[in-house]
Amino acid sequence: MQGRSRLELLRFRNLSAFAELVHGISDRSFGSVQRPDSPGRANLAAALGVPVQALVPTKQVHRAEVVLVPSAAYGRWEEGHGADALISCTPGVYLLGFFADCVPVLAYDPRQRAVGLAHAGWRGTLSGIARRLVEAMTAAFGTRPADLRVGLGPAIGPCCYEVGEVVLAALNGWEDAQGLLRPGRPGHAYLDLWEANCRVLLAAGVLREHVEVARLCTACHPDRFFSFRGEGRLNGLFGAAIGLARGG
After folding, report:
1. Does the N-terminal or the C-terminal CB of the chain have fewer CB atoms within 10 Å?
2. β-strand pairing of 238-244 with 21-25
3. Second-level CATH architecture of 13-156+211-244
């Protein structure tokens, strides 16, 4: 990923190759972005170079639904629309997700000029939200999975993400769980959400060389990112955004 200084967005190299695409991930220095009127969201919009009302936020419910954002969403998309994943092909509309340990999934189809964003916690990951994002883009825009470029952003890493019986039981029904876990305390294990989402994407037809993983652990870097696990409580949310530039 690119970007290190204050109020400089983190960006994926594979997505930055496309001039028509606007994307970025804020860090803690921006402030929390969840509230529409927050300085953090205004800072994010300014760093992206877009109006704050052009940011179309998810309403995260920790499920795997994907919603197609209509072109009329500009400035009118704040309440309702419970979904952890959004897709769009409208220039000037920028999808926004909120994070404090879960995996940001940013996707771009340069052939059809369409974007997608997902919030992948353990429930979304194991429910295949990344696969559903790919399928929704295919159904809505004619996306070919092999054309997609995907970035998996900062999240709690396998170094820190210890899970218990509920998550381990859910993984028992997963076809491709080998290598995703390493031993933790009795009855616990450490889960690699990045690799799990990579496997979901590859199974959906995305090419491994088209997936970039940030590998920045939010719990290891609470000075840089909000982290529910790392801080023991929710002190804020950082943002990830993606969209097509107006006139791009």
Report:
1. C
2. antiparallel
3. 4-Layer Sandwich (3.60)
